[in-house]
Amino acid sequence: ERSDDEWRAILSPEQFHIIRQKGTERPGTGEYNKFDREGVYNCAACETPLYYSKTKFDSGCGWPAFFEAIPGAVKRQEDNSLGRKRIEITCAACGGHLGHVFKGEGYNYTPEDERHCVNSKEISGAGTNFKNRINI
Known about the structure:
Cofactor: Zn(2+)
Distance between the termini: 30 Å
CATH topology: Metal Binding Protein, Guanine Nucleotide Exchange Factor, Chain A
Enzyme class: oxidoreductase
Order of helices and strands: HHEEEEEEEEE
Strand order of the largest sheet: 3-4-8-7-6-5
Number of domains: 1
Helix content: 10-25%
CATH architecture: Beta Complex
Organism: Funneliformis mosseae (Endomycorrhizal fungus)
Strand content: 25-35%
Number of helices: 2
Protein name: Peptide-methionine (R)-S-oxide reductase
Radius of gyration: 14 Å
Family: Belongs to the MsrB Met sulfoxide reductase family.
Shape: globular
């Protein structure tokens, strides 16, 4: 497990705030919100594969949205911050904050009725030029 100083040396200040301090980027500002290349989205902190591009969809929420993670890649825990009950999602390998998962929103065009709302700063984009590309 890395210390905060080690993470600060690896991550940009904005990434450190989002990934290690559970921050949130402003809606519509993330580079992967409208990104649609095929491949795998990895954790920006530790490069663990998190999501297949085929599970990404346009939810209109302003953040990248996925209907499911790669099995075992994402952990869930209750988050009662900001005075509301939510489910936080983190990278199972390094504990980096991804965002939150929401259920029962009625997305009829996804096979799962849940939305993983993910910060762009916590993922690296899909495509053949990324280190942990997985053939799907």
